[in-house]
Amino acid sequence: MQTAILKAGVPAPPISANDQDGKPVTLQEYRGRRVVLYFYPKDDTPGCTKEACAFRDIFPKFNKVGVEVLGVSVDDERKHKKFAEKYNLPFRLVSDPDKSIVEAYGVWGMKKFMGREYMGTSRVTYLIDEQGVVEHVWPKVSPEKHAEELLDYLQQKT
Length: 158
Known about the structure:
Glutaredoxin, about 160 residues, about 30% helix, 9 strands, alpha+beta
């Protein structure tokens, strides 16, 4: 069963987890700054690698518009660390092995691939505003083009 994806205008559910370095991550620590919270299925898979590298390649531009980037998947810290080091990712990857974050954001649910059904994380991105409210939602994204699409949106709003 999949819960509903959050809508713009609602408070972002709190996050309390660790990043790839085992350091605690909360949304509260980013209060006063906008945050891109992008959910992806699995470290080091083709689509997820393309998406992470696309964010990496234009990461300085996100900094320039004052936006933090956090990637979230159900992979553990060790897998996140390996993935981040392999591709030199300059942003934090949040580990959610108990699925509490993906469930709170409505991105955990039934998926289909090549005729097979399974439970997994949908590729969804949330933009959280400075007060911790969901500003915008991208419910379906293209791994290759999403970072640029998001940056275009941010530059128009800045």
